[in-house]
Write a structure and sequence with these properties.
Blueprint (H helix, E strand, L loop, with lengths): L15 H37 L2 H51 L16 H36 L6 H15 L14 H10 L1
Length: 203
């Protein structure tokens, strides 16, 4: 299943560079926080062992340090796993927006962005779709205006009193007017699933 189809994303890295930067930041934060703590514990326990000079205490402290290191490793892995999961909630929508802008840029103003239920950037989704809707409405009005002008020009070109060269120019203007906004698609009765296919084709 493609990562842009509705349902669970199965690809770990949707936006590799963004997610790696995010994970790197999380990992660096873990190191910055844990390193002083571990170093402090190691220094204090080492000092205590030297002062006590007792074999049993040495064994207990050694086991404690090993357990502590294992716990830190487990917690770090869990934090990174959660970070990967959370990064999907941002990287996935960004990837979808990138592909959607390509589709809309090609002239399909019937397309709308649909994010998953728990994805981030929901506010941007609404703003983006509203922007496309307003653009779609403006193009529709312009198309209707062009149609009205074409009808008027066609009637004028068929008027017997108009010279032939003017009539010819009117016909040429009419044909040119038909090309205005012809690259935009503003009406659609397509199934919503076809929108997902458009994103796949834009990859």
């Amino acid at each position: 299943m493609d990562i842009l189809k509705k349902g669970r994303r199965r690809q770990i890295f949707v936006k590799r560079s963004l997610q790696l930067k995010y994970l790197g930041f999380i990992l660096m934060t873990i190191v910055i926080i844990m390193l002083p703590i571990l170093w402090g514990l190691y220094y204090k326990t080492t000092t205590s062992i030297v002062e006590m000079n007792h074999p049993r205490v040495l064994a207990i402290i050694t086991n404690l340090n090993k357990t502590l290191l294992v716990d830190v490793a487990i917690v770090s892995i869990i934090i990174l796993a959660v970070a990967v999961f959370l990064s999907h909630k941002v990287a996935g929508p960004i990837y979808r927006f990138e592909k959607s802008t390509g589709i809309i840029g090609d002239g399909d103003l019937t397309f709308r962005v649909h994010l998953r239920k728990y994805d981030e950037l929901k506010e941007l989704e609404n703003c983006f779709n509203n922007m496309v809707l307003q653009l779609q409405d403006k193009i529709k009005k312009e198309n209707q205006l062009v149609k009205d002008i074409n009808i008027s020009l066609t009637r004028m070109s068929r008027t017997p009193d108009i010279p032939k060269y003017i009539s010819k120019e009117l016909v040429e203007i009419t044909e040119s007017m038909k090309k205005i906004n012809s690259g935009f698609r503003v009406n659609s009765a397509e199934d919503p699933e076809l929108f997902e296919n458009k994103i796949e084709e834009a990859k």
